[in-house]
Design goal:
Helix content is 17%, strand content 37%. With 102 residues, the chain is α+β, with helices and mostly antiparallel strands.
Length: 102
């Protein structure tokens, strides 16, 4: 089991905790490219819905940097446009789709 640890702000943590938000977003920058899919850069143009190889089986969210946490299965990591009401910007991002809560 390989777990990705992500701290979240209050709003997003509570939406995921309630089951409203079922995916989390990260910008397509060298740091996240390397951390999520193991490559330094990914070229993106338009609305690209491509699935990348990733090693994570679970995602563990923390409420900021506190001990309050929750863990989910990782369904997939893709690139595309997220939902604005869930905090996604207007450009392509990594979309981390959540499975069932553990």
């Amino acid at each position: 089991m390989k777990t990705l640890y992500l701290p979240l702000k209050k709003e997003w943590y509570e939406m995921i905790e309630r089951g409203v938000k079922t995916e989390e977003y990260r910008e397509i920058k060298p740091y996240w490219c390397k951390r999520l899919v193991g490559v330094d850069t990914i070229s993106v143009s338009g609305v690209l819905m491509e699935v990348y190889e990733y090693d994570f089986t679970h995602i563990k969210f923390s409420y900021g940097y506190t001990k309050r946490t929750m863990t989910f299965e990782c369904k997939s990591i893709t690139i595309g446009r997220g939902r604005k009401e869930w905090g996604a910007p207007d450009n392509d991002v990594f979309i981390i789709k959540l499975g069932k809560r553990i």
